[in-house]
Please model this.
Amino acid sequence: MELTFTTHQAVTSDGVTLVYKTAGDGPLNLILMGGWGCTRDYYDETLAHMSIKGLRVAVFDLRGHGDSTESPDSYSSARQAADVLAVADAAGMDGFVACGQSMGAKYVQYLPVLAPTRVLGLVLINGCPAGRIDVPWEQIEETSGYAGDRHAMRATHNAMITRTVKHELSEMWIDNAAKISRQVLRETLKHCFYDDFEDKVRAAAPFRALIVSALHDKFFPVDMMQERVTGIIPGAREVYLDCGHEIPFERPAELAIAMESFLAACDPMINAPTTLFAN
Model:
């Protein structure tokens, strides 16, 4: 289903302008956050498979991504989670379900720490753990050097997927990722891997969560997800899909069904789908 979006802007407490788009009229609010290199169009394919009846959806460009402005140095997990709240405030969303993919999934795990009464649930798609991951700094520097290099970004994208992806989706990600500055790529990777707030997430739990993992993810494999993501969120619901890291591109229909089922649990006014792919 093709959705009609309206584009808006939110200004953060440190002066960054975040561009976001909305569709639907609620009453349940859903805010979606992409990962490294993603923009507000990243979830379009998944949303096209969802019924948004009863939902108001907001998707935004992370700071320094897409049409959102850069910040000199504020890219921490806490800051990125605060950006979600800035979008929620601008959109008039008091309580909401927050969805993040990969790096974005790490950031949204900070939301129950910042605003526990506003978070109705979290959807973590191939989510980076809240704890530290010991990636060598040299690797972060090398990857951030892909800025402006479509060839390098294409190689990165191809390494993330294990299924055929629509050409236009691949090209969209490659184009958007290549436009991000080296500084933003470096700072977001640094905080994604080195920030450690696992103890804060444990203290904030339990909260309602859906964790969607890919069976063939090279970046955040299933055993890591089970130990370091699901393992620190008691009662989290798990879904495993046969694909690689880019679930919203590789398995959009199945992801949509899993999300609809979870959203129905967050708000009984939302109709649950009749077919589930959850384990």
Notes: Residues 6-266 form a domain with the Rossmann fold fold (CATH 3.40.50.1820). Confidence is low (pLDDT under 50) at residues 271-279. The beta strands are 6-11, 17-24, 28-33, 55-60, 96-101, 119-125, 209-214, 237-241. The first helix runs from residue 44 to 48.
